[in-house]
Design goal:
The protein is an alpha+beta fold. It has one domain. It has one helix and six strands; from the N terminus they run αββββββ. The termini are far apart.
Length: 154
């Protein structure tokens, strides 16, 4: 009688062990895929934010001074810095999101045909922010050209 109970307990233990051995790689693969999806989502959200700022800057720049517009931008997880104009925040034509990824830093950029400048480097926490986009007759640091200045609303 006790031998029969030991045999059934051993069979149950073997069955559960095989089930766990099959299930463990599936769980690990699911976590890897979830991490990859989160990174891809951050990149897509950063591209949407950069494109939105670039299109509004183009619109405001084409209207000229004193045009301005207030926009709402969602900053995704992993953003380290946001450059406006150039990587030194000078006058340029790009909005650049510097994003952490599992493979190092990624740079998500969006081009605008108008001169832009500004400073959004202080915005790195995940969340939604109001951004002021205004046409200027003279850009800070370059008084000879008009530009669009992009700053956070404080």
């Amino acid at each position: 009688m006790t031998r029969l109970r030991l045999q059934s307990s051993f069979e149950l233990l073997v069955t559960l062990s095989v089930g766990l051995a099959v299930l463990l790689p599936v769980v690990v693969l699911a976590f890897v895929q979830l991490s990859s999806a989160t990174t891809s989502l951050s990149a897509v959200e950063a591209q949407q934010g950069a494109s939105k700022m670039a299109s509004i800057a183009t619109l405001v720049g084409s209207e000229g001074p004193p045009a301005k517009q207030l926009i709402e931008i969602t900053i995704p997880q992993g953003v380290r810095y946001i450059y406006v104009g150039t990587t030194g925040n000078g006058v340029g034509h790009e909005i650049i999101f510097e994003v952490n990824s599992p493979h190092g830093l990624s740079y998500i950029t969006s081009y605008t045909p108008v001169n832009i400048s500004g400073n959004l480097g202080g915005i790195v926490a995940t969340g939604t922010y109001l951004i002021n986009v205004s046409a200027q007759s003279a850009c800070p640091g370059q008084t000879s050209a008009s530009c669009v200045y992009i700053t956070p609303v404080v």
